[in-house]
Structure to design on (215 residues):
């Protein structure tokens, strides 16, 4: 079957999530300072990036400062509502531009605020279909997001490639559907290995430009 569509994950596949996290953490620190008068910007960045507390970060911070845990939701909102510009990886736009000349392009992300991320990155116009799973009450742990993007692109699974970085969630369902899966090994999960054979991608690449050679 001839490949007709290429679909991508977003975070750490097309841009460095660290930049999004840094901007979000600063926005959350701004929000906390506005609510309490307490300045925690450097402490919050240190908590996340140096201490590696990336889950429950705001709970930890508020606990350390003996602040009401009800502030967590407000800080989470501030994190995801940050609107400072983001930059894709240097090779992202050249690769998307080249691929758009011969393939339909899709994107599937589990990240909250995926549409806003695309606007901040300035790359929304490259995609013929975008699925942000929280908006459809699903996730890449299920087949629905992949089926939906294939339907929107009007291609069969065996005529589509899916490119992602996270072996925990990115490959099992597209493998099951019959998509060709490609792992970009970089970002937060570059050292993780698939836990099951079903989650092993068909191909691995070290950088996005190598995708052009595969296709």
């Amino acid at each position: 079957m001839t490949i007709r569509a290429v679909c991508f994950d977003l975070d750490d596949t097309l841009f460095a999530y660290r930049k999004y996290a840094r901007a979000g953490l600063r926005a959350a620190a701004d929000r906390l300072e506005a609510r309490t008068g307490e300045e925690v910007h450097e402490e919050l960045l240190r908590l996340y990036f140096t201490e590696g507390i990336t889950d429950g970060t705001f709970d930890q911070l508020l606990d350390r400062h003996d602040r009401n845990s009800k502030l967590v939701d407000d800080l989470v909102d501030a994190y995801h509502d940050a609107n400072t510009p983001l930059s894709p990886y240097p090779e992202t736009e050249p690769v998307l531009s080249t691929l758009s000349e011969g393939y339909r392009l899709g994107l599937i992300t589990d990240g909250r605020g995926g549409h806003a991320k695309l606007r901040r990155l300035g790359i929304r116009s490259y995609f013929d279909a975008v699925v942000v799973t929280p908006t459809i009450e699903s996730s890449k742990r299920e087949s629905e997001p992949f089926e939906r993007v294939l339907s929107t692109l009007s291609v069969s699974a065996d005529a589509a490639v899916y490119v992602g970085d996270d072996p925990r969630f990115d490959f099992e369902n597209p493998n099951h559907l019959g998509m060709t899966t490609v792992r970009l090994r970089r970002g937060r999960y570059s050292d993780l290995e698939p836990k099951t054979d079903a989650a092993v991608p068909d191909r691995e690449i070290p950088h996005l430009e190598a995708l052009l050679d595969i296709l």
Summary: The chain has two domains: 5-15+89-214, 18-81. The chain is about 40% helix and 15% strand. The beta strands are 5-8, 104-109, 129-132, 160-164, 180-184, 203-205.
